[in-house]
Amino acid sequence: MKEILSIQNLRKSFGEKQVLKDVTLSLKEGENLAILGRSGSGKSVLIKCIVGLILPDGGNVRVLDHTLDAEDPDSLVAIRKCCGFLFQGGALYDSMTLGDNLRFTLANRKPELNLKTREEQVIASLEQVGLEESIDKYPSELSGGMQKRASLARTIITKPRIILYDEPTTGLDAATSREISELIIRLRDQSGVSSIIITHDIPCVKACANRISILKDGSIHEEGDYQRVRHSADPFTQSLFYTL
Asked: What pTM does this model have?
């Protein structure tokens, strides 16, 4: 499979605390990569560095044909057009209906589209996550699981090649978590979307991930598919399956 994202020797510190130390990993086209690690290990910092929400101190991030360059705003724009980001808290606009949240995103990201096309894409995105009947509801009127699906609809409406998920099932019950996992799988299988999934939810990892990377002390500690990592002899890796 074609490599769609490459990270080489990524470093990031906050004051004297070095969070990421020479992180190197890759993501292939049509692949779901899960990143596991202890709380505070830098998982969320890592994916925010990919899209320039946090600027790394060193190393290289390349998405398709674009290289992240803190001195070049065009590189940030190009990478963000390739990537969708599902925030842990959803980050929907409370004062807008679900439909208007999606319309606002399209108007800013794809202003060349006419109103008819935008509305068709709004409906299609909501249908993809099963929320077409909630188009006129406000975020406060949606359950936690519906808010997560609404955020995913807003993410996929721009048709990103890569989606970065920050704890997509946190705070959800088991049944709703399975629904979100199924959506992640469907996006990979039906739309060819590649994903990086930051999560503590082992059932989500088992269901969704083609490959797992273990983050320890700011570096990639171990990699492999679910069976290999789950049955690793390494004590740190094994501890994640019991304590997360």
From this structure: 0.90
Alpha-carbon gap, residue 201 to 189, rounded angstroms? 21
**CA–CA separation, 96 vs 114, rounded Å?**
21
Here the tokens at position 132 are 């077409």
Whether 152 contacts 160, CB under 8 Å: no
User: Side by side, which strands form the sheet with 17-28?
Assistant: 17-28, 3-14, 58-63, 66-67
Task: Please tell me the distance from the alpha carbon of residue 102 to that of residue 93, in angstroms, as a whole number.
Answer: 10
Sequence-ordered list of residues with C-beta below 8 angstroms from that of 35, at least 6 positions apart, any chain: 43, 46, 47, 196, 197, 198, 212, 213, 214, 215
Quote the radius of gyration of the chain (alpha carbons, Å): 18
Q: How far is residue 26's CA from residue 18's CA, in Å, rounded to a whole number?
A: 21
**Inter-axis angle of helices 144-156 and 98-109, nearest 10:** 20
Phi, then psi, of 243 in degrees rounded to 5 = -110, -15
DSSP designation for 151:
H
211-216 sheet: strands from edge to edge? 83-86, 162-166, 194-198, 32-36, 211-216, 219-224
Token couple for 237: 């890796």
Per residue in 96-111, pLDDT tens? 999 999 999 988 888 8
Q: pLDDT class for 90, splitting at 50, 70, 90?
A: low
Non-local CB neighbours of 132 within 8 Å, separated by 6+ positions: 123, 126
